[in-house]
Design a protein that fits this description.
By secondary structure, the chain is of the alpha+beta class. It contains 14 helices and eleven strands. The protein has four domains: 144 residues, no CATH class; 65 residues, no CATH class; 81 residues, Signal transduction histidine kinase, dimerisation/phosphotransfer (DHp) domain (Helix Hairpins, Orthogonal Bundle), CATH 1.10.287.130; 150 residues, 2-Layer Sandwich (Heat Shock Protein 90), CATH 3.30.565.10. The strands form three sheets. Strands 6-8-9-11-10 form a five-stranded mixed β-sheet, covered by helices on one side. A four-stranded antiparallel β-sheet has the order 2-1-4-3, with helices on one face. The protein starts with a helix and ends in a 5-residue tail after the last strand.
Amino acid sequence: MVVAFSLLISLQFSYVIRTKNIIHKQYSDAVQRCLYRTVKSIEEAEVLTYIDESFKNDTPEARKAKEAIKRASSEDIQHIIEQHIDSIVTNNNNLLSSTQHNTSISAATQKYNEKQYKRFIQAKSLMEIVTARLLNDSHNRDITTRIDPYYLRDQLSYNLEQNGITSEFSFAVADKNNKNIYRFNEKTFDITSKDCFKQQLFPSDKHANNLYYLYIFFPNKNKEFIPDIKILYPPFFVTLLLLITCIVTIWYIFRQQRLNQIKNDFINNMTHELKTPVASISLASQMLNDPAVTKSPKMLEHISNIIKDETKRLTFQVDKVLQMSVFERENIKIELQENNINEIIQTIAENYSLKIHSKGGNLYTDLQAHNAFVNIDEMHFGNIIYNLLDNAVKYSREDTPIIITISTWNDNKDNLFIAIEDNGIGIKKEYQKHIFDKFYRVPTGNRHDIKGFGLGLSYVKKIVQLHKGQIKVESEPNIGTKFVIELKTIEI
């Protein structure tokens, strides 16, 4: 599963990168085409300006030359000029040849041919002037006089729209050293940025020391790619959905594995816990068959007490399992009544202190809550305290006297807090998040004398939640454990 998803994600990633590169390449090519066409339009406009300046006389030759240049593409302008000159020269030679061989032509025709020849000489002179100025004089003019910014913007906008690019843009003109920069709009940009596009202005200009470039920048360029990249969203979301499904499946597999391990531990613990009293009762029953035992009232009483205690212990264990079965179905019913927590805890502490004293320990109370009135079920709440105290005794350190402290206090919102703190073996950090899980028991190393099913803390959390409270644990190994319960108080 991991290999399959790794390959799928790799393919998706490569497709995204490839598609993105293709879109960027197409976009860049389209912009470069627009810049090239714009530059050619600017060059054509300059040629026509020179033609208008040169052909001031409205002669047929001038009009013919101008119309030919206007109709021609920018690449053919120089060729048309040269071709037009060659055509005039050829016609003139034919005219002169015809004049020489036809001696019978009248004087009027000869004068007409002379006028035509003069016009040819005039047109040829004008064309030579235009050509010379185009080739030699244009670079001497300032770049700002050679370019009309409004015409340049209009040409850029038109060519961009023809290629489907409608983004806002900024443009500038700079020399080859990027020193003399002419900006024609308010928005500035860095012309050395890799996001800028550039194209040489007047590419026919042969003076390499006076080169200028047109730069264009699109501040919202990435928005142009969004519609094209949207096509990649469906497969991406499908892959993401499959990945989430895979993760959830793996999580459930591990969760089921952990629950299965907890179940096995519970069965082992339950077997051990139930087998011990059953074995004791069986042994006691066998002893009752001994005539010597029946003749001793003291021994008979002792065996009877063993059977009674072990039967009580067995009943308690079975009731505990049945109780958790009821909790699993969430059919617990609690009867809430107003009670003073300080008084309940004080009573429990007095009763439980005898057990702790018998083990050489001490139980202290620090009941500082000024508002200890809470709606609780007294029986279940008492079970909570007893369970936590039992755990404190059960997980105490053998070489250290047991010290347990029960304290209460209020916060600034008048919530009630109950803390039960001990100096036992503690709980490692990695186990703390599982201690409230049903059937879970914290590993205790080589200690095998700790009895239980792992149901006590699960029961505690369940009852606290039914009282709309919260419980948390703070613990350090070989230092101790502290359980804190938070409950809502009643206004008094």
